[in-house]
Fold each of these.
Amino acid sequence: MIIAVDGPAASGKGTLARRIASHLHYAYLDTGKIYRAVGHAVLGAGGDPEDLDAALAAARALNAADLANSELASDIAAVAASKVAALEPVRAVLLGFQKDFAASPPCGLGGAVLDGRDIGTVVCPDAEVKLFVTADVEVRARRRHKELLDKGEASIYPRVLKALKDRDARDSNRSAAPLIAAADAIVVDTTAMDPDEAFASAFGYIQKHTD
Ligand code: CDP
């Protein structure tokens, strides 16, 4: 059983995907971390995330332990991620790991939940359940702003809003696996929902759909 969860930045897809996985005892993969790790590695080596050779070398050198780095949560890593993620050869290198995770979840678990931008369209086009989680951009920016403040980081709301809009545009307008809802995905709009409500709505759908 594969559950694909896609959507734009700060839509609540990670929180939702993690909760679904924990509820069903499925494996969980945050595929954004893979792109963040590649972007972060390029920056760490003093390179430009838009430089194909640098990004490709970082993607090829990536290993699972790199995903545990807490610095991947930063907005600097997010911007670098969305730059390396626009490069088709980089995506091709990272595809196999994601497909293998979905096909053979670790520890023999009975299913996998993957979240990202192209899970329902490219990584797992045959997923049994596809959710597209979204919310108004101002609401998403307020959530990200609060998250940063809660972590004790400096954050200025108009800058967070602009950064989200820029990243949404880069993710949606790229030619390689753009952010788009799969035709057979159901949309979960979390604009007016808290995490419990989003989970109840999505889980109700999963139960009906997989009965
Ligand atoms: O947590 P947030 O939604 O802000 O971002 P993320 O899921 O960690 O993804 C960071 C960036 O990686 C995105 O802006 C995308 O450019 C890229 N990404 C992608 O292209 N494909 C995926 N399956 C996951 C992430």
Amino acid sequence: MSQFDYDLFVIGAGSGGVRAARMSAGLGARVAVAEARYLGGTCVNVGCVPKKLFSYGAHFTENFHDAASFGWDVSHSPLDWPRLRDNKTREIERLNGIYGNILGSAGVALINGHARFIDGHTVDVNGKTYTAERILIAVGGWPYIPDVPGREHAISSNELFYLDKLPEHATVVGGGYIATEFAGILNGLGVQVTQIYRRSLFLRGFDEEVRGHLAEEMRHRGVELRFNENVSAIEKTAEGFRLQLDSGDSLDTGLVLYATGRKPLIDDLGLENTAVALDDKGFIAVSDSFQTAEPSVYALGDVIGGMELTPVALAEGMNLARRLYGGVDQPVDYEYIPTAIFCQPNIGTVGYSEEQAREKFGEISVFTSQFRHLKHTLTDNPSKVFLKLIVDKASDRVVGVHMLGDEAGEVIQGFAVAIKAGATKAMFDTTIGIHPTVAEEFVTLREATR
Ligand code: FAD
């Protein structure tokens, strides 16, 4: 009989923690999970899932508009926000229940409460101590709002999901994917939106040409983008809020949403009672096998930095379980991870941006195409699709696929398999398209743009 209560004690029932717990239990380990807030973590409760549901809601504005050109006269009243919000919340509650069942049927003990380290083998939850041979930190992150005067008037994405009512005008501060998605979502839901970002163009790290085209598309849809701008103070007014900007301008708004990054959620975790160390950005430092500086303690998901995506946390959780209890010793492969931004229109991307590919491969060919979607030939919608392939000249391998257009995430997921398998441009060229689709253009790009 082991000297410990459990083989593995997981802190956090989010994407990574649930996957690691469930798989470890399936491989024979005695596992417990402590969860302080909500089953399913960020993704299920205040992340991917509710955001995607709101994004579906936001697309209707455009569909209502386009419908007239197809012979449908649709008159629509303003959005019933409480109905959308509450339907979303009901679905989240259903998912919370499913997560509970998944853990229960896998034989994982669920402990409700905030876990804190006593030492490298012991945690405290609600005054009760639990010991384990190994402890996994899968606590995720929390929105970070910088210390601007009047910061208490700003909300984060967490609160946006539960607003009492939508304002007439909202300001989104930030230039990452979460800020950009919410700017599009609020705009689609009928709110006038200004997005403020301190650098010259949002979505740093994504392909620059794609970012530029997205900015045009968002402006067409009525989002006011203010780059090279920042908020210096937020004041409460009778009607809402007044933002003082670095440029000297001021802006009146009904809601101030800060999406300016997330920090690991480690403040009250008792890490000082262990040897766990942080990296220079404040994330938990781990080896390739997710082991921290305290040998019995592991960490994965958003709390270790990296790509901060649910499928990445899932892959890490699965990898750790197989390593610890399945005898499989293989690192997670972080190259060619596809991702989507659910802005309007969507961005889907896998592999390297043009800028990154030039640096990594040197000689590259770039193929691009921008065109009107067949659907919009009947409408007055000026929206254009933009597609881009990046090819390493030496190997002919396609090393980047980027799309700005409807359902780009759905399209790019399929291409990601080909890219991971090492598809060359010659293979793209001999693949027959599906006509008439937008994605067929990816296999008919013959002349390099650069
Ligand atoms: P989390 O899912 O955050 O889970 C951590 C859990 O630990 C939480 O439930 C928390 O309550 C719990 N916890 C924390 N401290 C303790 C403690 N001391 N004791 C007990 N429990 C504790 N990713 C995508 O792939 N696609 C998307 O479209 C996408 N959209 C997003 C939109 C938004 C607005 C946000 C904020 C994130 C989005 N993400 C998306 C990112 C994704 O949600 C995260 O990458 C993912 O949830 C990380 O999983 P995790 O297991 O590391 O942590």
